[in-house]
Specification:
Length: about 475
Amino acid sequence: MTPRILVVEDERAIQLALSGLLRRQGYEVEVAGSGDDALAALVDGAFDLVLTDLALGRGPDGMDVLRGAKERRPECAVVMITAHGSEAIAVEAMKAGAEDYVPKPFDNDEIRMVVQRALDRTRLERENRLLREQIQRQYGFENLIGAGPSMQQVFQTLQKVAETDLTVLVLGESGTGKELVAQALHNRSSRKDRPFVAVNCAAISRELVESELFGHEKGAFTGADARRVGRFEAADGGTIFLDEIGDMAPETQAKVLRVLQERSFERVGGTKPIAVDVRVVAATHRNLPREVAQNRFREDLYYRLKVVEIGLPPLRDRPEDVPALAQRFLEQVSERLGLEKKRLGDDSLARLARHGWPGNVRELHNVIERAAVLSAGATIEESDLNLGSDARGDASGPANIDGLVFSEAKKIAVEQFERAFLLQALRRTGGNISRAAESVGMVRQSLQQKIRELGLRSEDWGNES
Ligand SMILES: Nc1ncnc2c1ncn2[C@@H]1O[C@H](COP(=O)(O)OP(=O)(O)OP(=O)(O)O)[C@@H](O)[C@H]1O
Ligand SMILES: [Mg+2]
């Protein structure tokens, strides 16, 4: 496409000389005789370059044109023509975003060269940006990475629904990225500058959940010594993320259903309905249709939530995503901790691809962080990953117990099961030990005991995020 240039010059003779010169170079040229005309032209037309004199008689000067151009068309290059000896202003113009400047008196070659160079540079920048955007579109969406077809499909859906106000239900095992999806939906919507409020429905106690969600009036119950604004109200204008909604008590489900239907609610102890404008995104690792079938989750609420349903596949079903995720996590941790640049060896990559990932992307994240910190050399070797021998895996497959005596084998297998099972409960409740214990029918003390015995650490259930 022929580059379009706007020449801004109040002196008629120079205006003609410049436009003639540039037209002969094959550019499409428009002229403006004053700062005001230039600013008006910038509103209507898309230019690749503005060549403006600094002094423009009365009205806005070249600096004003420069700022106006950068404001309206950030991609447009600006070249400033300055009076002889006004170096200070030229520097100021460059700081304000001018691509280059030409001091008067200039000759034709100089103008030709400076214009050509500025156009080349902006074209390159534009091409690079387009390329980056294309790569981003191909392999990611906001902070989500996914090169394979299943995640690509997820990204397409996200793209379509992000800007709508439709309620979205995100389903997927623990650690598959449900929270990232909720955030991506928010960040890609017109609500992005308003609050994103995440509520972990599994971690709030039954007694407090309503006051937490809807707020309460002073004196609504013992201990309510001041009015409190609930999460729905705090999210007004933005997005509320109801995480682990499958763990919500039936009474609360009814109240949330009402908010979804009526878009209004009352504070606990209050009588005045409060209207809110919130976009609702909900997530759970539970199989909601089954919860509905077993009467643990309200069917009407389920249908209200799943206006759009996004299922995140477990990582073991998309091994093609593992290398890109691992690389990204390695870069991130290295940058955060200021580590020397490390790379993943071929054996490591192969091992990562074979692992079963019961903890999904979160587990991969933790494995890479640990390996990056603990590995000695610049290459992360298979042994640094600490994933055990292939057959064993974390809890991905049966432990390698072949050849052991029965009692030994049983001990190893049971321990592996306990570890996976309890970690799941802990992840679900965001590390809330009481709630985790309750959800699996244990008393708190025995869960604590088990955590100690198995050597589980809070990093293991992803408390860092
Ligand atoms: N596609 C992805 N790209 C990059 N990072 C990801 C992706 N999916 C998950 N992660 C990372 O993995 C970790 C877990 O993700 P997230 O908290 O969103 O999972 P979740 O599905 O909400 O898990 P849980 O059910 O346990 O709450 C986070 O550190 C997140 O940044
Ligand atoms: Mg989550």
